């Protein structure tokens, strides 16, 4: 038996926001949630404002989302949504603003506070008295697939890590995928995020929870990314390539919505939390050592779909596009493994993941030279 659930309406193509205004407007008053620059630099914010003003829909812009959003900032965003009377949310940006929007959508209608019924960390229970606000997503990076997943990954300083929440209503109602919005990505961000999408597809395909539907989508996503590996390396990504990478990233999101991720992600969160290494880059450092331990034809399927000859060649490719941005110590690795082994997605790993094994993967990935 397997199930397939993907409730988001996905609209793909150039100018899709301008050409489908009704799909953008899920209510009478919008809160636009975006990053400091991603909304503006991508051009998506201008398109959204044009459509809303044309339709005389009032809106408020919250452009304070930081990378790797922190949980208490999300509760503040929720308060803002209440204060400005927003009844729907438009998220514009990479995974950070999209994940932030999902949390803000919950806090907007479930007041969090010391005395209140709903406490800050209750968001992880996944069941809320009031349904989150309906949301639209406009991704400006091609990596997380958050526009089609129910997950929101938040930074928790008290646990020194990142943790995800999800619920049936934290899927976006509509996602607009326009490659024009990712053309402005700095090359290293485009590479990191493409590697994140690759990891979603690979971790989904090699996952204990893989199913015929997720397998089919995962291999197709990897084939699409495979067509653009040279352009990602050289930095010559044309508009067509941007659109295709955005679609492949959404396919990765659809896959992990069915399967979840694996230890690559849970171990990567520590690299992001403690060393500020971008999410996709962190996964890219770890994925080869994860794959090396899988005794199944599935590894060759993934590498073959990417159009790469061998797992060793895949490793070389990742090393070319993902520079080492800092050094690591054994002590750090021991500390991180203690946190990462407690993550939920450890159970989806295709082999028994122990703390000792995670230490070995961290060491081989990070302390090599
Ligand atoms: P991001 O943190 O959203 O953005 C990275 C950087 O790129 C930011 O500085 C951002 O600017 C900039 N940027 C974004 N779009 C741009 C554009 N079109 N032009 C120029 N600059 C642009 O990166 P991300 O990799 O997309 O998202 C990472 C987050 O997503 C992590 O928190 C990760 O845990 C989460 N994630 C979620 C899921 C899920 O299923 N929900 C899956 C994987 C990862 P601004 O600061 O101005 O925005
Ligand atoms: Zn990811």
Molecular structure report:
The chain has 369 residues and is an alpha/beta fold. The protein folds into two domains: 172 residues, Rossmann fold (3-Layer(aba) Sandwich); 181 residues, Dehydroquinate synthase-like, alpha domain (Up-down Bundle), CATH 1.20.1090. The chain is built from 16 helices and eight strands. The strands form two sheets. Strands 1-8-5-4-2-3 form a six-stranded parallel beta sheet, with helices on both faces. The chain is globular, with a radius of gyration of 20 Å. The N and C termini lie far apart (46 Å). The model has no long low-confidence stretch (mean pLDDT 96). The site of zinc ion has 7 residues, from helix 7 and helix 12.
Radius of gyration: 20 Å
Number of strands: 8
Q: Which hetero compounds are present in the coordinates? A: NADP nicotinamide-adenine-dinucleotide phosphate, zinc ion
Tell me what the CATH architecture of the largest domain is: Up-down Bundle
Large-scale geometry: globular
Oligomer designation: single chain
Please indicate the count of domains: 2
- Helix-strand string: EHHEHHEHEHEEEEHHHHHHHHHH
% residues in beta strands: 5-15%
SS field, number of helical segments: 16
Percent helix range: 40-55%
Low-confidence stretches: none
């Amino acid at each position: 038996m397997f199930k397939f659930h993907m409730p988001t309406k996905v609209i793909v193509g150039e100018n899709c926001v301008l050409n489908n205004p009704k799909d953008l407007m899920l209510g009478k008053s919008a809160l636009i949630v975006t990053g400091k620059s991603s909304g503006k630099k991508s051009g998506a914010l201008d398109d959204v404002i044009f459509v809303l003003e044309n339709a005389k829909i009032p809106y408020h812009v919250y452009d304070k989302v930081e990378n790797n959003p922190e949980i208490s900032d999300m509760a503040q965003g929720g308060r803002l949504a209440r204060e400005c009377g927003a009844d729907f949310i438009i998220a514009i940006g990479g995974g950070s603003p999209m994940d932030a929007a999902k949390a803000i959508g919950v806090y907007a209608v479930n007041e969090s506070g010391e005395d209140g019924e709903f406490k800050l960390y209750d968001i992880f229970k996944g069941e809320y008295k009031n349904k989150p606000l309906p949301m639209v997503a406009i991704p400006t990076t091609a990596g997380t697939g958050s526009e089609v997943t129910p997950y929101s990954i938040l930074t928790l300083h008290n646990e020194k890590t990142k943790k995800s929440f999800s619920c049936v209503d934290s899927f976006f109602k509509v996602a607009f995928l326009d490659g024009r919005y990712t053309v402005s990505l700095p090359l290293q961000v485009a590479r990191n995020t493409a590697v994140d999408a690759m990891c979603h597809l690979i971790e989904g395909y090699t996952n204990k929870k893989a199913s015929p539907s997720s397998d089919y989508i995962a291999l197709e996503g990897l084939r699409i990314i495979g067509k653009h590996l040279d352009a990602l390396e050289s930095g010559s990504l044309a508009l067509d390539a941007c659109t295709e990478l955005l679609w492949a990233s959404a396919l990765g999101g659809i896959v992990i919505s069915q399967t979840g991720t694996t230890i690559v992600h849970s171990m990567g969160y520590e690299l992001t939390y403690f060393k500020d290494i971008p999410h996709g880059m962190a996964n890219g450092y770890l994925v080869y050592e994860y794959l090396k331990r899988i005794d199944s034809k599935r590894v060759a399927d993934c590498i073959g779909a990417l159009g790469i000859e061998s797992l060793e060649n895949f490793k070389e490719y990742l090393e070319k596009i993902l520079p080492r941005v800092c050094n690591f110590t054994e002590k750090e690795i021991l500390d991180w493994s203690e946190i990462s082994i407690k993550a939920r997605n450890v159970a989806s790993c295709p082999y028994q993941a122990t703390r000792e094994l995670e230490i070995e993967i961290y060491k081989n990935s990070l302390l090599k030279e």
